[in-house]
User: What shape does this take?
Amino acid sequence: MDYEVFLLSRVREDWLATGDAQGSVVRGLSATGRVISSAAAIMVAVFVGFALDPDVTVKMTGVGMAAAVLVDATVVRLVLVPATMALLGRANWWLPRWLDRLLPRVEVERAAEPAPHPAPVG
Assistant: This one.
């Protein structure tokens, strides 16, 4: 899930600044791709380390978790999510107006200036 937070927070930050949905996905992925890949590689290495244990159950768990992290980080987080976001464009950020009014606006990086809010979709 932390991979998703890295990716989506960067994409949303860029989208709020530019309003360009596809460009934001490209820039967000290029900015976070190395971090996501590195974190996944570390986790895969740790789980592969469990495969060296003599207990078969621990070996299976280690290999299974290493494969799951590898597939999740590469296929899901680095391919499917960005591709889906590029296809959906502005619809990624659609939120019902009543819910938008209820949710707080949290802007950590731009605390001094209010964030621009793009026109609602639909």
Notes: The radius of gyration is 18 Å. The mean pLDDT is 87. Residues 56-88 form the longest helix (33 residues). The chain has four helices and no strands.
